[in-house]
Amino acid sequence: MLRSAVRVPDHGKRVPFRFVRIEGDARDALGERLVARTLARDPEAAPAALDKDRKRFSHAPLVIVVVAVLDADDTAIPEVERLLTAGCVCFALLQAAQAMGFGASWLTGWPAFDEAVLDVLGLGAQERIAGFIHIGTPRIEAPERERPDPASLLTDWRAP
Ligand SMILES: Cc1cc2nc3c(=O)[nH]c(=O)nc-3n(C[C@H](O)[C@H](O)[C@H](O)COP(=O)(O)O)c2cc1C
Description:
Layout: H1 2-5, E1 17-23, H2 25-41, H3 47-55, E2 62-69, H4 79-99, E3 103-107, H5 115-120, E4 127-136
Antiparallel strand pairs: 1-2, 2-4, 3-4
Helix pairs in contact: 2-3
Bound molecules: flavin mononucleotide.
């Protein structure tokens, strides 16, 4: 799966990404850290919110964190392009997992943007979460959602 995931367009061969695996006991341990963080931010947090955080990383047996590694000194390749590469990694990982018969979901939520959580996950100052890819055995068929009509998104450019 990871071999497929790293096979992405990557301007300048920067490899602006890495993976962190969360599985087994680590999933619940991270959930407890999220609960602590939520309580630190809001001691009155609702029990339902705390429960959601506790289970956030325990729905699937495996979560792969796709970390975007964004070197601020790299002025040759725009940062947005390196971030897009990390996004491609998330999508490639999703597709690889699904092609192998697993269910996979690309999620973020507040933990992806919280400094303290990024610290707990071991991210450096120049790193961001591109996605948490949750991977497991599908129990139900994923509900379909409305998709955009590509024709409505297409225009022709003509010389003004
Ligand atoms: C960067 C990114 C972050 C996402 N984060 C969430 C999330 O936190 N929660 C959520 O329900 N869906 C999130 N989604 C959407 C799901 O990945 C997915 O598109 C949605 O559940 C519908 O699945 P489908 O597109 O396979 O039908 C995110 C998508 C992207 C691209």
